[in-house]
Amino acid sequence: MTTTIELSEKQKKIVYAENVPIYVKASAGSGKTRVLTERVRYLLAKTNKKVLALTFTNKAGKEIEERLNNISEIEKRIFVGTFHGFCQSILENHGNLIGHAKMPHIFEDEIDRLELIGQAIKQTPSYAGKYKTQDKQEQKNFRYRVLNFISEMKRKLIADNEIGEHTDDENIALLYQNYQELLKSQDAIDFDDLLFLAYGLLVDYPKTAALYRRSFFAVCVDEAQDLNNAQYQLLLALTNGEFDNVMMVGDPNQSIYHFNGSSPDYMDKQFVGNFKPVIVELNENYRSSRKVLEAAEKIIPDAEYIVGTVKEGFFEINGLKDEEAEAQWVVGKINELIALKTHDDIEGEITCEKIAVLARNKYIFNSIEIQLKETDLPFYYKMTPGAIQFESDLMNIFDLALRVRLNPQDSLHKQRLLSRLKIETTENINLGDVISLVLDELNKKLIKLVTELSDDGSNLIMMLEDFRDNLNVEDENEKNMIFNDIKELLKHWRNYAKNTDNKSLHQFKNAMALGQTHPLTQHSGITLSTVHTMKGQEFDIVFVIGMDDETFPDYRAVRSGGIEMTQEKNNLYVAFTRAKRFLYVTWPQKRMMPWGNYKDRIISRFLKVFNN
């Protein structure tokens, strides 16, 4: 099977190598995922066996699957997933050998595991008395210390009966045992047990490890700089010195999971020592074009490595008359690019899926959404999972108050609300009591509004629109943010209400949390996203819109200065480097306020380095 994917000579050397161990030292943007997937494609063409591709995130695994989805029956020919996912499949298929007739429940949530440690403390009388005398912070620190100890022991693959040899604190050793017994009593294991048990199974039942070696033609490990001891030992147990068709791809300079016991040494030293691999260094930068990186470097100098960049790319800044003109220009440019169909800098056809429009805040998209709808260009909003994220301080207070109104037992959010409102009290007060304690009149009015909402939400629209229309806020930036937050909330309510017969505020809040109230739920077309939501993703063509001062950087950061402004600059740098090839930056010279008047704007202070 051949491939039409464009590869450099160095990349070809890796993809078409014989069945030998390979260590690919890949710097940022050098096309390591492409090399790995094309290596897998090449190997599958040579064998009827499966290929094992191990990653560190589900997202990375999904990307590999998508790149290989044109191979017939690909799901039967490759196992692609995280180390934990692979270990889970081992336990599902062979767990009966170690006493698990069926797959145990997995406690992966840190909160659940900390609660188990709390239960284990109660079952350890020799320590429980001392624990009771500690204040809450000391108790919390101790639970985390125990949790970290348990995780460390499992990563080091220390047997249960040897735990006492690895701590001077007898109580912690006892807590480890009680924690494990609690898991067992609930037919459960924790996240670290997945690796720990799978490793033990492969070592204690060598015929099972041999079965996997016969099943797989090759093993490929992505982001191998993040290997920890348990993961590397699992790989050794699997290969057992008899199997060397292993490829590791990684960058020693990009290790990010040190807190989890990982180290680039497992790739850079131990793999090299154990497998004697062919070492190939990829240092050509295919991720971002020269123009994009040069623009990013003007925002934060020396943050990107431009030497070795392969593609030239494009960068442009445009100031437009107002938001409508800005949106028209962006949509016109999108149509122009799609009409091109191809460009030497962009692999494959230019489609809507290769284009993203980014902004500092959600409300910036109002004009461009209208333009995209009018031109029938498909688009969707990339949303952060979970509840709606308000951008104004006032509506964040509304959100906290609504949570407390719907669940009076919610002490977590009640405390946050009181803290926001600068109310100091140790009494168990209800939301109605809060009204008399609030000093700020606007906040007082808002809390009163929440208490007067009907359970079925029938007066939500009327009350929020009345609150908005009588809003007395001097700062136009802040007022604009509040207006747009209210508009966003009411949009979600209307989407919820039209699909629900028996409406309730409680159901509405849950529906928002699950992402069920947004009108654009498809995931194809042009991506619209705030910068914060786009971290970790890249597109061939990116538009960063709304680059007027006090919009980006946000007006609150301008007021605060210091670390807030540093973070805003970092956010813009992230926005720029989401572009792989073309980057277009726009700003409106006037902005229409929701209450009907135009406000003059100036270009973002961050863009003045470009002398526009």
List the helices and strands and how they pair.
Blueprint: H1 9-15, E1 22-26, H2 32-44, E2 50-55, H3 58-67, H4 74-77, E3 78-82, H5 83-94, E4 105-107, H6 110-122, H7 125-132, H8 136-155, H9 170-185, E5 188-190, H10 191-204, H11 206-215, E6 216-221, H12 229-239, E7 246-250, H13 265-275, E8 278-282, H14 290-299, E9 314-320, H15 323-340, E10 355-359, H16 366-374, E11 379-381, H17 393-406, H18 411-420, H19 431-437, H20 441-452, H21 460-469, H22 476-497, H23 505-513, E12 526-530, E13 539-544, H24 555-560, H25 563-576, E14 579-588, E15 590-592, E16 598-600
Parallel strand pairs: 1-7, 1-8, 2-3, 2-6, 4-5, 6-7, 9-14, 10-12, 10-13, 11-12, 13-14
Antiparallel strand pairs: 15-16
Helix pairs in contact: 1-2, 5-10, 6-8, 6-9, 10-11, 10-12, 14-25, 15-16, 17-18, 17-20, 19-20, 21-22
